[in-house]
Amino acid sequence: KIPLLIDTDPGVDDALAILMALNEPSVQVVGLTVAAGNVGLQHTVANALKLVEVGNAPQVPVFKGCDAPLVHPSPDAADVHGADGFGDVNYPKANGTVHDEHAVQAILRLSHEHTGQLLLVALGPLTNIAAALKIDPTLPQRIARFVVMGGAVTAHGNLTPAAEFNIAFDPEAAKVVFDAFPMTELVDWEATIAHGLPHDQIETWLEQDSEAACFYELISRRTRNWAKSLRGFGDWHSADSLAMTVALEPTAALRTERRPLMVETRGEWTRGATVIDWNRQTGRADNVQIAREVDTGAYFGRVKRALGG
Ligand code: BDR
Ligand code: CA
User: Fold this and answer.
1) 110 versus 231: which is more confidently predicted?
2) Cα–Cα distance between 120 and 176 in angstroms, integer?
3) Which ligand is nearest to the CA of 188?
4) Which residues surround ligand 2, an ion (CB under 5 A)?
5) Mind giving me the DSSP string for 256-287?
6) What ipTM score was computed for the predicted complex, to two decimals?
7) Rounded distance, CA 263 to CA 284, Å?
8) Under 8 Å CB-to-CB from 99, ≥6 apart: which residues?
9) What pTM, to 2 d.p., does this model score?
10) 126 lines ligand 1 (CB under 6 A)
């Protein structure tokens, strides 16, 4: 089995991605390393613990990581995910407890234990991974594949006009990470918009008779309604589950493009933007492989199965 380490800030779409991973027989989830992002660390950790319980994987360790961006404080995404990150439904707390080891140390240790094999998937701000790189810059040499949900490759952001949440929450961390990894597989916000989940489709899957569907129906209700009413979109945009699909099934990325990516850490309007050198004007080496088109059949099938179908 492929060892899979998920760095995350759950978050309603993180939850779907994690249930998807726990449901995939070809991988073994070796840990969830958690950071602040969508909401504060206390909530993201509690949510991660609940997910391993709901996903029938209480043996998967949850590691508590960084509680704030590296340099500048940033607003969270409680307006989208609820104040507790899981739709404020007051779900019964998990029985499991967080592991003693800090998430940053866990990332480094697991990279040694699974040298050359580890699939590292980042679904939140890149603070934990940047901190790990500061301690040990050789980390990328031990990672088999690194998949990131983040960025907006043609600058149609969601947190700001130019920047996507995971990058804009901690641009300094994102810069450290993208500058260090030789080839990051990127699933960005624009790919997310292009591969939405139709509301009627997901509502059908949520009616499945399973604990995962029942729990997910509850915690995602607020976000789905928010997406329907406020944004008026016909589809629900679940970024992290799309990224997880590409992580678990690389051939699901039907069209990819490799380019240099730079993170904007300053700028009046563009802090946190992911600048892609589409025309190769910088002379920099390609460091991202951007998923431009994803197999929606593969994606929808994985969402359905993650919810017990
Ligand atoms: C990303 O930001 C978060 O709100 C989501 O969980 C996802 O990881 C989308 O921009
Ligand atoms: Ca996330």
Assistant:
1) 110
2) 16
3) 1
4) 9, 11, 14, 123-124, 240
5) EEEE-EEE----TTTTT-EEE-TT--S-PPP-
6) 0.99
7) 13
8) 31, 61, 62, 63, 64, 106
9) 0.98
10) no
* Beta carbons of 88 and 82 less than 8 angstroms apart: yes
Q: Which residue has the tokens 């997880």?
A: 244
User: What are the pLDDT digits (tens) for 241-264?
Assistant: 999 999 999 999 999 999 999 999
* 281 CA to centre of ligand 2 in angstroms: 31
Residue positions annotated with a catalytic role: 237
Q: Which ligand is nearest to the CA of 192?
A: 1
- The per-type count for the chain, helices as H runs and strands as E runs, is 12, 12
Q: Kind of pairing, strands 118-122 and 143-149?
A: parallel
Asked if pLDDT for residue 147 goes beyond 80, the answer is yes
Can you give the pLDDT at residue 231? Answer: 60
From 19, 165, 244, the mutation candidate for ligand 1 (largest count of ligand atoms within 8 A of CB) is 165
Give the pLDDT of residue 279.
98
- The amino acid at residue 86 is F
